[in-house]
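I'll show an entry:

:::
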Amino acid sequence: MKRTVKGMSKDQKSRFQKKMPLKNNRLAFYYKLSSNERAFLRSLHLKKYRYQHKLFLIEGLKPVKEALLANYPIESVYISSNLDEISILEIIGLSKNFSTKIYLISPKEIYQISSLKTPEGIIAVGKINERDFEFLDEDDIPALYLWQVSDPGNLGTIIRTSLWFDVKRIFTSPGSVDVYSSKVVRGSMGAIFNMKISPNTDFELLYDRAKRKGIKFLAADMSGRKLSEFDLGSRWILVFGSESHGLPEKIIESTDYKLSIRKRGYGESLNLGVSVGIFLNELLYRDGEE
């Protein structure tokens, strides 16, 4: 059912249509979500339904922009009628795929489908791009393997940090937090749409295939030797354990190097996302490289 949404006058509608002509009537300016549509969108906050429908939610202006800039497959975009006009036009302009539907809905409806207490006014529905681990290419190295990482904020930060340091691929183990949860997507600040990620990867399978190619495994472990003692190039997979339990002894013993960050002050441990950043900076910037 279509209707006039408060905050969008007929004059505004006319200005939008003149500024950004649209094909196939893919922009619904006056749209009211049905109860079934609201229920479906809210169900995507749960992992079970994300993987059942192969869809997930992208919340916030920056993550949605980054997804569109990366040409990530987006099924639909829901924009609050109180989002500023410039942002609305920018999102429409970035939506190059004309199969993407764009809906202007009320702020109340955005609030009803969002997981945030104060939504930014835009939510997109992205298609889950499952990249199961089948083979390992040289283009996938250097890489990270994350063992049962449970904090979505940490995983989002790690994805964002890895993109900054040009890590090629991230593998997560079975039992790790879902890559497509809203908190991970938001925490990555859009980096997830530019990073090759393979969830639910068995360590032994990855280890076997990487070893055939002569790729080293590095374990982040507090009992390891100092990072500064080695120059390991960039043909490696860096392995991190869970925030609370670290890596299983079996995995630690199978790696080529056990490395740690030197502590100069006081503290029991570092946040996992911070640790990843320090490791990547130390490993990838050697010999005066800039």
User: Anything to note?
Assistant: Confidence is low (pLDDT under 50) at residues 1-7, 18-25. Residues 5 and 30 are 6 Å apart (CA to CA).
